[in-house]
Amino acid sequence: MKKVLLTAFAAASISVASAQNSAVNSAIMNHKNGTLDKAQADIDKAIAHDKTKDKAKTWFYRGVIYQDMIGNPIYSKMTNDSTPTLVLESFNKTVELDGKDGEFGKQVPDRLNMLYGQVLNQAVEFHNSQDWDNAITKYDLASKINPTDTTSVLYAAYASTAKQDYPAAIGYYDKLISIGHKTEDVYKAKIQLQQATEASDEQVLATLQDGLKEHPNSVYLMQEELRYYLKADRGDEALAKLEKAIAADPNNASLYAVMGNLQERSKKLDEAVKSYQKAVELDPNNFDAYFNLGVLEYNKASEINNKAAKMDYATYQKQGKKLEAEANKHFEAALPYFEKAHEIQPKDEATMQNLQRLYTRLDRKADAERVSKLMSN
Fold first, then answer.
1. Which residues belong to the signal peptide in this entry (predicted)?
2. Which candidate, 29, 100, 210, 364, has a CA 20 to 30 Å from the CA of 318?
Protein backbone atom coordinates (compact mmCIF):
# COMPACT_ATOMS: atom_id res chain seq x y z
CA MET A 1 0.00 0.00 0.00
CA LYS A 2 2.79 2.39 0.90
CA LYS A 3 4.49 1.55 -2.35
CA VAL A 4 1.37 2.43 -4.29
CA LEU A 5 1.05 5.78 -2.50
CA LEU A 6 4.68 6.67 -3.20
CA THR A 7 4.20 5.87 -6.87
CA ALA A 8 1.09 8.03 -7.00
CA PHE A 9 2.88 10.91 -5.24
CA ALA A 10 5.83 10.70 -7.64
CA ALA A 11 3.48 10.71 -10.60
CA ALA A 12 1.73 13.80 -9.25
CA SER A 13 5.07 15.57 -8.76
CA ILE A 14 6.16 14.76 -12.27
CA SER A 15 2.81 16.00 -13.55
CA VAL A 16 3.12 19.35 -11.73
CA ALA A 17 6.71 19.88 -12.86
CA SER A 18 5.77 18.96 -16.38
CA ALA A 19 2.89 21.43 -16.28
CA GLN A 20 5.18 24.22 -15.20
CA ASN A 21 7.83 23.36 -17.78
CA SER A 22 4.98 23.35 -20.25
CA ALA A 23 4.19 26.95 -19.19
CA VAL A 24 7.73 27.97 -20.13
CA ASN A 25 7.52 26.14 -23.44
CA SER A 26 4.10 27.63 -24.11
CA ALA A 27 5.52 31.10 -23.39
CA ILE A 28 8.30 30.44 -25.91
CA MET A 29 5.85 29.23 -28.57
CA ASN A 30 3.54 32.20 -28.05
CA HIS A 31 6.54 34.51 -28.27
CA LYS A 32 7.55 32.95 -31.57
CA ASN A 33 3.99 33.27 -32.85
CA GLY A 34 3.88 36.94 -31.90
CA THR A 35 1.11 36.57 -29.31
CA LEU A 36 3.07 38.38 -26.64
CA ASP A 37 0.14 38.84 -24.26
CA LYS A 38 -0.25 35.06 -23.98
CA ALA A 39 3.51 34.63 -23.73
CA GLN A 40 3.54 37.16 -20.88
CA ALA A 41 0.78 35.32 -19.01
CA ASP A 42 2.59 31.99 -19.37
CA ILE A 43 6.01 33.29 -18.31
CA ASP A 44 4.50 35.09 -15.30
CA LYS A 45 3.08 31.77 -14.12
CA ALA A 46 6.40 30.02 -14.62
CA ILE A 47 8.42 32.70 -12.82
CA ALA A 48 6.15 32.40 -9.77
CA HIS A 49 6.28 28.61 -9.46
CA ASP A 50 8.77 26.80 -7.26
CA LYS A 51 9.57 24.25 -9.96
CA THR A 52 10.65 26.78 -12.61
CA LYS A 53 11.46 30.01 -10.80
CA ASP A 54 15.14 29.07 -10.39
CA LYS A 55 15.78 28.06 -13.97
CA ALA A 56 17.90 30.27 -16.25
CA LYS A 57 15.63 29.46 -19.17
CA THR A 58 12.62 30.91 -17.35
CA TRP A 59 14.39 34.16 -16.48
CA PHE A 60 15.90 34.54 -19.92
CA TYR A 61 12.57 34.24 -21.70
CA ARG A 62 10.92 36.50 -19.17
CA GLY A 63 13.44 39.16 -20.20
CA VAL A 64 13.03 38.42 -23.91
CA ILE A 65 9.21 38.53 -23.85
CA TYR A 66 8.94 41.74 -21.84
CA GLN A 67 11.71 43.38 -23.86
CA ASP A 68 10.01 42.60 -27.15
CA MET A 69 6.78 44.05 -25.79
CA ILE A 70 8.51 47.41 -25.23
CA GLY A 71 9.02 48.12 -28.91
CA ASN A 72 5.86 46.43 -30.19
CA PRO A 73 3.21 48.81 -31.57
CA ILE A 74 0.42 46.70 -30.05
CA TYR A 75 1.80 45.19 -26.87
CA SER A 76 3.82 48.20 -25.74
CA LYS A 77 0.56 49.44 -24.21
CA MET A 78 0.86 46.60 -21.71
CA THR A 79 4.26 47.86 -20.50
CA ASN A 80 5.09 50.72 -18.15
CA ASP A 81 8.09 52.73 -16.94
CA SER A 82 9.28 49.83 -14.77
CA THR A 83 9.33 47.29 -17.62
CA PRO A 84 12.94 47.98 -18.71
CA THR A 85 14.07 47.50 -15.10
CA LEU A 86 12.20 44.17 -15.00
CA VAL A 87 13.95 43.14 -18.22
CA LEU A 88 17.37 44.06 -16.82
CA GLU A 89 16.68 42.12 -13.62
CA SER A 90 15.63 39.12 -15.69
CA PHE A 91 18.81 39.06 -17.74
CA ASN A 92 21.00 39.64 -14.68
CA LYS A 93 19.29 36.69 -12.97
CA THR A 94 19.85 34.60 -16.10
CA VAL A 95 23.62 35.13 -15.89
CA GLU A 96 23.58 34.53 -12.14
CA LEU A 97 21.93 31.12 -12.66
CA ASP A 98 23.56 30.09 -15.93
CA GLY A 99 26.94 31.82 -15.92
CA LYS A 100 28.28 33.95 -18.75
CA ASP A 101 29.01 30.94 -20.95
CA GLY A 102 25.82 28.95 -20.35
CA GLU A 103 23.25 28.28 -23.03
CA PHE A 104 21.17 31.30 -22.04
CA GLY A 105 23.83 33.38 -20.29
CA LYS A 106 25.85 33.76 -23.48
CA GLN A 107 22.80 35.25 -25.24
CA VAL A 108 22.39 37.99 -22.64
CA PRO A 109 25.01 40.52 -23.92
CA ASP A 110 23.26 40.99 -27.26
CA ARG A 111 19.95 41.40 -25.51
CA LEU A 112 21.44 43.96 -23.10
CA ASN A 113 22.84 45.95 -26.01
CA MET A 114 19.36 46.04 -27.49
CA LEU A 115 17.87 47.08 -24.15
CA TYR A 116 20.46 49.82 -23.76
CA GLY A 117 19.44 51.28 -27.12
CA GLN A 118 15.75 51.13 -26.20
CA VAL A 119 16.24 52.89 -22.88
CA LEU A 120 18.61 55.49 -24.30
CA ASN A 121 16.09 56.35 -27.02
CA GLN A 122 13.44 56.84 -24.35
CA ALA A 123 15.83 59.10 -22.44
CA VAL A 124 16.52 61.20 -25.52
CA GLU A 125 12.80 61.65 -26.14
CA PHE A 126 12.34 62.97 -22.61
CA HIS A 127 15.47 65.11 -23.03
CA ASN A 128 14.21 66.68 -26.24
CA SER A 129 10.92 67.57 -24.55
CA GLN A 130 12.89 69.01 -21.60
CA ASP A 131 11.39 66.52 -19.16
CA TRP A 132 14.61 66.46 -17.20
CA ASP A 133 13.54 64.17 -14.33
CA ASN A 134 12.36 61.35 -16.59
CA ALA A 135 15.34 61.83 -18.89
CA ILE A 136 17.75 61.49 -15.98
CA THR A 137 15.93 58.41 -14.68
CA LYS A 138 16.30 56.73 -18.08
CA TYR A 139 19.93 57.79 -18.42
CA ASP A 140 20.62 56.25 -15.02
CA LEU A 141 18.99 53.01 -16.10
CA ALA A 142 20.95 52.98 -19.37
CA SER A 143 24.12 53.38 -17.32
CA LYS A 144 23.16 50.39 -15.17
CA ILE A 145 22.61 48.32 -18.31
CA ASN A 146 26.03 49.28 -19.67
CA PRO A 147 28.20 50.51 -16.77
CA THR A 148 31.21 51.28 -18.99
CA ASP A 149 29.25 53.46 -21.41
CA THR A 150 29.87 57.21 -21.19
CA THR A 151 27.07 58.57 -23.40
CA SER A 152 24.25 58.11 -20.89
CA VAL A 153 26.32 59.56 -18.03
CA LEU A 154 27.39 62.57 -20.06
CA TYR A 155 23.83 63.36 -21.11
CA ALA A 156 22.64 62.88 -17.53
CA ALA A 157 25.16 65.59 -16.62
CA TYR A 158 23.75 67.84 -19.36
CA ALA A 159 20.17 67.22 -18.19
CA SER A 160 21.08 67.90 -14.55
CA THR A 161 22.79 71.14 -15.58
CA ALA A 162 19.72 72.19 -17.57
CA LYS A 163 17.62 71.39 -14.50
CA GLN A 164 20.06 73.55 -12.49
CA ASP A 165 20.79 70.65 -10.16
CA TYR A 166 24.49 71.43 -10.19
CA PRO A 167 25.58 69.06 -7.38
CA ALA A 168 24.00 66.15 -9.30
CA ALA A 169 25.70 67.28 -12.51
CA ILE A 170 29.06 67.39 -10.72
CA GLY A 171 28.39 63.84 -9.53
CA TYR A 172 27.89 62.68 -13.11
CA TYR A 173 31.13 64.34 -14.21
CA ASP A 174 32.90 62.58 -11.33
CA LYS A 175 31.41 59.31 -12.56
CA LEU A 176 32.68 60.00 -16.08
CA ILE A 177 36.17 60.58 -14.71
CA SER A 178 35.97 57.38 -12.64
CA ILE A 179 35.18 55.28 -15.74
CA GLY A 180 38.03 56.80 -17.71
CA HIS A 181 36.28 59.56 -19.67
CA LYS A 182 38.80 62.25 -18.71
CA THR A 183 38.46 64.76 -21.52
CA GLU A 184 39.36 68.41 -21.03
CA ASP A 185 35.70 69.35 -21.51
CA VAL A 186 34.68 67.13 -18.60
CA TYR A 187 37.11 68.86 -16.24
CA LYS A 188 36.13 72.27 -17.61
CA ALA A 189 32.42 71.61 -17.08
CA LYS A 190 32.99 70.30 -13.57
CA ILE A 191 35.07 73.35 -12.63
CA GLN A 192 32.46 75.76 -13.97
CA LEU A 193 29.74 73.96 -12.01
CA GLN A 194 31.88 74.03 -8.87
CA GLN A 195 32.32 77.75 -9.34
CA ALA A 196 28.56 78.16 -9.84
CA THR A 197 27.86 76.29 -6.59
CA GLU A 198 30.45 78.31 -4.70
CA ALA A 199 32.65 75.33 -3.94
CA SER A 200 35.73 76.13 -1.90
CA ASP A 201 38.87 77.28 -3.66
CA GLU A 202 40.57 74.12 -2.43
CA GLN A 203 37.95 71.93 -4.11
CA VAL A 204 38.24 73.79 -7.41
CA LEU A 205 42.03 73.71 -7.26
CA ALA A 206 41.93 69.96 -6.65
CA THR A 207 39.88 69.49 -9.82
CA LEU A 208 42.19 71.80 -11.76
CA GLN A 209 45.26 69.88 -10.64
CA ASP A 210 43.64 66.54 -11.51
CA GLY A 211 42.73 67.92 -14.91
CA LEU A 212 46.23 69.19 -15.53
CA LYS A 213 47.64 65.75 -14.84
CA GLU A 214 45.57 64.50 -17.78
CA HIS A 215 45.91 67.63 -19.94
CA PRO A 216 49.15 69.40 -19.00
CA ASN A 217 48.96 71.72 -22.04
CA SER A 218 45.39 72.91 -21.47
CA VAL A 219 45.43 76.70 -21.61
CA TYR A 220 42.05 76.94 -19.86
CA LEU A 221 43.11 74.75 -16.95
CA MET A 222 46.46 76.49 -16.57
CA GLN A 223 44.88 79.94 -16.63
CA GLU A 224 42.24 78.96 -14.09
CA GLU A 225 44.86 77.46 -11.80
CA LEU A 226 46.90 80.66 -12.06
CA ARG A 227 43.83 82.73 -11.24
CA TYR A 228 43.31 80.79 -8.02
CA TYR A 229 47.00 81.02 -7.16
CA LEU A 230 46.88 84.79 -7.60
CA LYS A 231 43.66 85.00 -5.59
CA ALA A 232 45.40 83.15 -2.78
CA ASP A 233 48.47 85.40 -3.11
CA ARG A 234 50.48 82.49 -4.51
CA GLY A 235 51.65 84.31 -7.66
CA ASP A 236 55.31 83.45 -7.05
CA GLU A 237 54.40 79.76 -6.80
CA ALA A 238 52.45 80.00 -10.06
CA LEU A 239 55.35 81.73 -11.80
CA ALA A 240 57.80 79.10 -10.55
CA LYS A 241 55.57 76.31 -11.89
CA LEU A 242 55.37 77.98 -15.29
CA GLU A 243 59.09 78.64 -15.53
CA LYS A 244 59.76 75.00 -14.67
CA ALA A 245 57.26 73.85 -17.31
CA ILE A 246 58.81 76.09 -19.97
CA ALA A 247 62.31 74.86 -19.12
CA ALA A 248 61.08 71.30 -19.64
CA ASP A 249 59.18 72.13 -22.85
CA PRO A 250 60.65 75.35 -24.35
CA ASN A 251 58.79 75.02 -27.65
CA ASN A 252 55.34 74.86 -26.09
CA ALA A 253 53.48 77.96 -27.27
CA SER A 254 50.62 77.43 -24.82
CA LEU A 255 52.97 77.81 -21.87
CA TYR A 256 54.19 81.18 -23.14
CA ALA A 257 50.59 82.30 -23.66
CA VAL A 258 49.79 81.42 -20.07
CA MET A 259 52.99 83.10 -18.89
CA GLY A 260 51.86 86.25 -20.67
CA ASN A 261 48.51 86.03 -18.93
CA LEU A 262 50.20 85.74 -15.54
CA GLN A 263 52.52 88.67 -16.27
CA GLU A 264 49.57 90.72 -17.48
CA ARG A 265 47.68 90.03 -14.25
CA SER A 266 50.79 91.08 -12.33
CA LYS A 267 50.87 94.38 -14.31
CA LYS A 268 54.14 93.41 -16.02
CA LEU A 269 52.78 94.46 -19.39
CA ASP A 270 56.03 94.71 -21.36
CA GLU A 271 57.02 91.22 -20.26
CA ALA A 272 53.53 89.97 -21.13
CA VAL A 273 53.89 91.31 -24.68
CA LYS A 274 57.18 89.46 -25.11
CA SER A 275 55.64 86.21 -23.86
CA TYR A 276 52.63 86.50 -26.18
CA GLN A 277 54.92 87.31 -29.10
CA LYS A 278 56.99 84.22 -28.30
CA ALA A 279 53.80 82.16 -28.29
CA VAL A 280 52.78 83.28 -31.79
CA GLU A 281 56.34 82.83 -33.00
CA LEU A 282 56.15 79.18 -31.92
CA ASP A 283 52.54 78.73 -33.00
CA PRO A 284 51.20 81.10 -35.67
CA ASN A 285 47.67 79.87 -34.87
CA ASN A 286 47.72 80.54 -31.14
CA PHE A 287 44.39 82.30 -30.70
CA ASP A 288 44.86 83.31 -27.06
CA ALA A 289 48.18 85.04 -27.68
CA TYR A 290 46.89 87.05 -30.66
CA PHE A 291 43.71 87.99 -28.81
CA ASN A 292 45.59 89.13 -25.71
CA LEU A 293 48.11 91.13 -27.74
CA GLY A 294 45.14 92.91 -29.28
CA VAL A 295 43.65 93.57 -25.86
CA LEU A 296 46.93 95.03 -24.55
CA GLU A 297 47.17 97.48 -27.46
CA TYR A 298 43.48 98.34 -27.20
CA ASN A 299 43.78 99.02 -23.48
CA LYS A 300 46.79 101.28 -24.02
CA ALA A 301 44.76 103.31 -26.50
CA SER A 302 41.79 103.50 -24.14
CA GLU A 303 43.96 104.72 -21.26
CA ILE A 304 45.37 107.51 -23.44
CA ASN A 305 41.87 108.49 -24.59
CA ASN A 306 40.69 108.58 -20.99
CA LYS A 307 43.48 111.03 -20.15
CA ALA A 308 42.37 113.27 -22.99
CA ALA A 309 38.74 113.06 -21.90
CA LYS A 310 39.61 114.26 -18.38
CA MET A 311 41.44 117.37 -19.61
CA ASP A 312 39.93 120.81 -19.24
CA TYR A 313 39.17 122.64 -22.43
CA ALA A 314 42.34 124.74 -22.44
CA THR A 315 44.62 121.79 -21.81
CA TYR A 316 42.79 119.74 -24.41
CA GLN A 317 43.32 122.48 -27.00
CA LYS A 318 47.05 122.20 -26.42
CA GLN A 319 47.55 118.43 -25.92
CA GLY A 320 44.33 116.62 -26.73
CA LYS A 321 44.80 116.08 -30.45
CA LYS A 322 48.29 114.75 -29.91
CA LEU A 323 47.03 112.24 -27.33
CA GLU A 324 44.21 111.10 -29.59
CA ALA A 325 46.67 110.55 -32.42
CA GLU A 326 48.84 108.48 -30.10
CA ALA A 327 45.78 106.46 -29.04
CA ASN A 328 44.90 105.81 -32.67
CA LYS A 329 48.34 104.31 -33.23
CA HIS A 330 47.61 101.75 -30.55
CA PHE A 331 44.13 101.10 -31.96
CA GLU A 332 45.73 100.48 -35.36
CA ALA A 333 48.34 98.24 -33.75
CA ALA A 334 45.57 96.21 -32.07
CA LEU A 335 43.67 95.64 -35.30
CA PRO A 336 45.91 93.02 -37.01
CA TYR A 337 46.03 91.00 -33.82
CA PHE A 338 42.24 90.80 -33.61
CA GLU A 339 42.00 90.14 -37.35
CA LYS A 340 44.36 87.20 -36.99
CA ALA A 341 42.44 85.95 -33.94
CA HIS A 342 39.23 86.17 -36.00
CA GLU A 343 40.88 84.23 -38.80
CA ILE A 344 41.80 81.46 -36.34
CA GLN A 345 38.42 81.38 -34.58
CA PRO A 346 35.90 83.06 -36.91
CA LYS A 347 32.92 82.47 -34.60
CA ASP A 348 34.39 83.93 -31.42
CA GLU A 349 31.97 86.65 -30.27
CA ALA A 350 34.44 88.67 -28.18
CA THR A 351 36.85 88.95 -31.12
CA MET A 352 34.11 90.16 -33.45
CA GLN A 353 32.90 92.71 -30.90
CA ASN A 354 36.42 94.12 -30.57
CA LEU A 355 36.86 94.20 -34.34
CA GLN A 356 33.60 96.09 -34.76
CA ARG A 357 34.67 98.68 -32.18
CA LEU A 358 38.06 99.12 -33.83
CA TYR A 359 36.69 99.41 -37.35
CA THR A 360 34.17 101.99 -36.14
CA ARG A 361 36.78 104.00 -34.27
CA LEU A 362 39.14 103.93 -37.27
CA ASP A 363 36.28 105.05 -39.55
CA ARG A 364 36.18 101.81 -41.54
CA LYS A 365 32.40 101.68 -41.75
CA ALA A 366 32.12 98.97 -44.40
CA ASP A 367 34.28 96.60 -42.34
CA ALA A 368 32.30 97.44 -39.20
CA GLU A 369 29.03 96.62 -40.98
CA ARG A 370 30.48 93.37 -42.35
CA VAL A 371 31.47 92.19 -38.87
CA SER A 372 28.09 93.31 -37.50
CA LYS A 373 26.34 91.05 -40.01
CA LEU A 374 28.57 88.14 -39.03
CA MET A 375 27.59 88.65 -35.39
CA SER A 376 23.87 88.64 -36.20
CA ASN A 377 24.03 85.38 -38.18
1. 1-19
2. 364
